Amino acid sequence: MSTETITPSTISTKRITTQTLIEMKESGIPIAMLTAYDYTHARILDHAGIDVLLVGDSASNVMAGHETTLPITLDQMIYHAQCVIRGVQHALVTVDLPFGSYQGDSKRALQSAIRVMKESGAHSVKLEGGEAVAPTIERILSAGIPVMGHLGLTPQSIYRFGTYRARAKDKKEADQLLNDALLLQKAGCFAIVLEKIPAALAKEVTEMLRIPTIGIGAGPGCDGQVLVTHDALGLTKDFNPRFVRHYAELSDLMTDAIKAYVNDVRMRDFPNESESY
């Protein structure tokens, strides 16, 4: 246990590290996490006080327009991470290892993680899975690279699941998730994302672990919460699961703004005399 007293005010003034997140769990201070894929958004989110920025493979969906997260490559993830890091002074940045860059080959996984850290300057990596990836996590950690785990609905396995429905609703899968969470903690993960699982199960996992849990569609009992920023800001109009809360409707605001711009150009109102040289 840390001997340092940590409060929301001290968090806002210090650089967030993996140790900070553990101290936040110990102090009962919820962790706020969002996704970022570019410099401009990262700078805004960091300035607003976000604790963790996830350079998510969800960039495959919201940035590239793919149906799943599977198509995005390691090179593309590194590029997004490079952009995000340039905008960050406060938050801890973790980067998803994309599909195909770590599964089934711990040596390749280590090489992928090293590339992310060296070429982007990120602070940690995240990968999906439980028991099957525990040896891979240990190998990545042997190089001094912090790892965040991810259990429950794991989007890179969508074709195996065949659906985006909630996971671990039956006892067998719930017991496996509990076991996997302990294995990831033992392997050395500094935190675990719990996606789309029953709230009671997420609370049980959270209370069982020494490391923080970050929930998405997993109820209020986790140590922190994460959303895709595009969803939280209302930029994605066709994705409305129950766990997403819209904190703004930027899609509507941007549409109205662009319509006004088009109209001003058509009417030769823009640029006016004060906007010209």
| Share of helical residues | 40-55%
Report the order of strands and helices.
HHEHEHHEHEHEHHEHEEHH
Q: How far is it from the N-terminal to the C-terminal residue, by CA?
A: 62 Å
CATH superfamily of the largest domain: Phosphoenolpyruvate-binding domains
CATH architecture of the largest domain: Alpha-Beta Barrel
Arrangement of strands in the largest sheet: 1-2-3-4-5-6-7-8
Account of the protein in words:
- Helix content is 41%, strand content 13%.
- The chain has 277 residues and is α/β, with parallel strands linked by helices.
- The protein has 2 domains: 8-246, TIM Barrel; 249-277, no CATH class.
- It has an 8-stranded parallel barrel, surrounded by 7 helices.
- Helix 3 packs across helix 5 and helix 9 (171-187) runs parallel beside helix 10.
- The longest helix has 17 residues, at 171-187.
- The protein starts with 7 loop residues before the first helix and ends in an 11-residue tail after the last helix.
Provide a concise account of the structure shown.
Helix content is 41%, strand content 13%. It has 277 residues and is of the alpha/beta class.
